[in-house]
Amino acid sequence: MRWSGQQLGVESDSALPGLARLNNLVRSVQTPEFAGITFHEVLAKSALNKVPGQSMMPFGYTINPYRGCSHACTYCFARPTHTYLDLDAGHDFDSQIIVKVNVAEVLARELKKPSWGGNAVALGTNTDPYQRAEGRYKLMPGIIEALAGSGTPFSILTKGTLLRRDLPLLAEAARAVPVDLAMSIAVYDDELQQSVEPGTPTAKARLATVSAVREAGLDCSVFMMPILPYLTDTTTHLDTALAQIKAAGATSVLYTALHLRPGVKPWFMQWLAREHPELVESYRKMYFGATSYAPKEYRKWLAARIRPLIARHGLTRGEEDPVTGGVRSTALAAGGSPRSSTPQFDFGVAAEVGPEAWPNTAPRAGPRAGTARAAREAELARERGRGHPQADEATLF
Ligand code: SF4
Question: Which residue, by CA, sits nearest to atom 7 of ligand 1?
Fold first, then answer.
């Protein structure tokens, strides 16, 4: 969706060069509490995004109150959407946040239209609705009220612990419509988490939010997405993660191996070259050229490793909505939709952009002995020694 399609016919003198086309811009704001972040407040003309399903599947709907995300995950597949605004998919995506300040009012109007079919709506499938900006703008309460008030089932997927603020409202909404909540927690090693998704709350804080959701009487799934080859796919990491997910009271768990679409790959590989140069070659082989998915053999290997662990921890595997990429709605699971249950991400929202520019891979000093990173790398080395499938090119390509 391009902002030029949402023009209100008012020219903004204050637009940044990259946002010159954004003539529904109200103002750009920087505040001391959000150092390094600029909020561009816009008036949206629409709130509901129609996401085409695949083949014979129906449409799904999503809402994105924000564009860009200060959670700054290096692997975020939504990054290329920022290039629609002539902003870059790297630092600009993390720090130039578009805020649809009128999204709740616009949504309420759209949901009142006789043509609205009451389809399930997913939040959090493109950018995070509970990123830090939500503490300032408080857009979600109005969105939740509009959805519940119109009888529209909805799902929320987030990494934001700010979800806690709205739990009373969500519990009330769940009495009116199916509400599906999920917390995304992929990395259970604090050092790696702070490096690869530097704007996110810790795994511990997110797990505590899962527990709070359950205490509020609501189900809560955990998305272990993405699982990073060589970094978070060790038996130790997966086992530790699943033990913590179980202890937090999660209702179900979903997992997927890292997906690197072309517009995201250069940014992720820059991070990898800086933080784990020893893995660059392995990742290049796995995600060679325009390949976005991890090799099938790797995905099979991962499934064989993680599924018994999921079962051993007494967890249930959840289902992802194949159209929106959010958690599969209980309204749909009840049999109200012909949607497929094949888990996959929603890649329909963002654009494929730009040729890839692979980074340099200068060698780097190893981790200090005794640190969590040193322990992780020692385990990774042991994994490779045991014939990790990614190390065996012949099985992959
Ligand atoms: S929290 Fe989600 S939307 Fe935000 S940067 Fe991370 S992956 Fe992207």
Answer: 76
Identify the weakest region by mean pLDDT among 208-217, 284-293, 345-354: 345-354
Quickly count: other Cβ atoms within 10 Å of residue 114's Cβ.
5
Per cent of the chain over pLDDT 70 is 75
CA of 71 to the centre of ligand 1 (A): 6
User: Ligand 1 centroid vs 129 CA: distance in angstroms?
Assistant: 9
Distance 94 CA to ligand 1 centre (A): 9
Summarised one tens digit per residue, pLDDT across range 115-133 is 998 889 999 988 999 999 9
Report the pLDDT value the prediction gives residue 214, as an integer from 0 to 100: 98
According to CATH, the topology of domain 3-396 is pyruvate-formate lyase- activating enzyme (3.80.30)
Assess whether pLDDT exceeds 50 at residue 39. yes
Domains of the chain: which residue ranges? 3-396
Residue 243 pLDDT exceeds 80: yes
